[in-house]
């Protein structure tokens, strides 16, 4: 009888219904428990961050230009897509962001590989001074670049914005590639040389592919920083070369506040960013699966 009782207890213990009952009771207890302080702070922070975005989205569909809700309307989106000046500024931002980010990525990658591989007298000096644009306030960089362009005689325009954005994007790319190189296994380089690869072949077929995550991270960071920069761009932009942040600032100062067109633009940019992130996430999953 004792053996039969033991078998019965074992079968009852592993029965799915009872296991589900235990899990349900634990889940119910977890739900009934009060929120901890950290969870409360987290929820309040999320609400604080995303509530303004929700208000922005709602009032972009307001029929009135004020804060009084007068009805659902798409007039501000129609005005948004018909504004040539706005889309000219957006095009300038895209051109400057992609070109300056690509240049900063190439120069930053080459500089990081050179500083990490070779030992020379000014190596520590170069490594330290490359982080100055990241440390200095943006207003100092903007004023100094404006004075430099005026002294050299270069007229302010898209080219000066491109040079300025390349300058402050370089340290971010340099830092991310250096972080990747710090984890680099240099025995792979020795193996490539033992197999007869030249320095150029080793660079493009071994080093660059291994550093590609850091290079792509630096490129995307540089594009993001270039698109959102206002302070430095404000000092080095010339007539007819305004970027999107400068256009938004001018629109706000003219009207004395955020206009519904800017709200509609913000909603379009949020949707575009979310769509881009989802696409990149699926693409990275596809690459990892292969």
Could you characterize what this model shows?
This protein has 290 residues and is mainly alpha-helical. It has two domains: 2-78, no CATH class; 79-257, MetI-like (MetI-like fold). The protein has 14 helices and no strands. It has helices at residues 2-13, 16-32, 37-59, 75-81, 84-117, 123-129, 132-135, 138-152, 158-182, 187-194, 199-228, 231-236, 244-255, 260-289. It is globular, with a radius of gyration of 28 Å. Mean pLDDT is 80; it is low at 13-19.
Mean pLDDT: 80
Given the helix and strand composition, which structural class is it?
mainly alpha
Report on the biggest sheet: none
* Helicity range: over 70%
Strand portion, in percent? under 5%
What's the CATH architecture name of the largest domain?
Answer: Orthogonal Bundle
Which H/E pattern describes the elements?
Answer: HHHHHHHHHHHHHH
Secondary structure layout:
Layout: H1 2-13, H2 16-32, H3 37-59, H4 75-81, H5 84-117, H6 123-129, H7 132-135, H8 138-152, H9 158-182, H10 187-194, H11 199-228, H12 231-236, H13 244-255, H14 260-289
Helix pairs in contact: 3-14, 4-14, 5-9, 5-11, 5-13, 9-11, 10-11
